[in-house]
Fold:
Amino acid sequence: NFNLSKKSLEISPSLTLDITAKAKAMKAEGVDVISFGAGEPDFNTPKNIVEAGIEAIEQGKTRYTPASGLIELKEAVCKKFKDDNNLSYLPENIIISSGAKHSIYNALMAITNPGDEIIISVPYWVSYPELIKLAGGIPVYINTKEENDFKYTINDLNRVITDKTKAIILNSPNNPTGALYNEEELKEIADWAIKNNILVISDEIYEKLAYDEETHVSIASINNDIKDITIVINGMSKAYAMTGWRIGYAAANKDIAKVMSNIQSHTTSNPCSISQYASIEGLAGDQASVENMKKAFEQRRNFMVDAINDIKGLSCQKPKGAFYVMVNFTKLKNKTIYNKKIKSSLDFANLLLEKGNVAVIPGIAFGDDDYIRLSYATSMGNIEEGLNRIKEIVERA
Ligand code: PLP
Structure:
């Protein structure tokens, strides 16, 4: 009987796992399940990127690379930051990792001392609280509201700041809400962070998925003072449909970048060499596929939002970015459908799965029990059919 690590025992299992495991089991039994659970594009990786990966294998580019990534990829990342975000970095500021999640983990490990507080907004991406705890920090939550587009203000930040506050994690465009902070709002947050000497981890993984007239702005591009205390996180997964290749990257001031690179050199070493070569093509090659995928997501979003708001008892806002819709089901709370009382988002998700063969993620996984999250990273046909099934069930209430 061993005493396992107290810190590690505090890490929660993924709440979403339960429902996705159930959905998988049903599928395996031959049930026609429609899943709105996906956290990844349903498109294949663009051909030019795949070919660059194959070429890397065939040319024997299959050995260790420098731990923090290939210089050629770092240069491509620097060019991307300059072109897309008006940010000037040198390769020494860049760390390439095995996915953006790994980049965030390195960043938190590099900055967190025991008991340091790190601010995140609710609803949050499932991994933030657990990654903060793994690094020895304490997650501090700011609840956001649908009527404020799920965004927080300086007043909210002032309410939770203490002398232990070390950093905020900003995620715009946001998973799960689709919230997008505009330049004005980012300026205010930047001023606040500079004034209070608080670091910013800016998770910009959904930057390419901003819809309508919205554009993504990196908080680091506001001025040099905020750039110096911001760790920008981005990666290949969402924009280039490369989730399985596992490439993320971070940009930070030289000192932070060095510590992140040291951590990585002793844990994972370099991310997959083949994926790094493919990513150079992704960033430097033809960008038409990024734009095409975005157009498809935008069409699906428009369709999904209208269809949800047509269902009595459900409502949602039009998210500005990413590929998720947070569906408000508070009008159904404590109603009974198929003899089951809906008390929580998990009850509602289970009902939709068991009676409608539709998988959704309960909002409690993101810290908000009034919502379920539907991903529109699935075909228009699935969206149509899945929403019909949801409507049929919900309107029994
Ligand atoms: N950040 C957010 C907000 C995400 O939603 C995800 C993936 O779901 C990631 C980071 C991690 O992406 P990856 O590790 O695949 O690059």
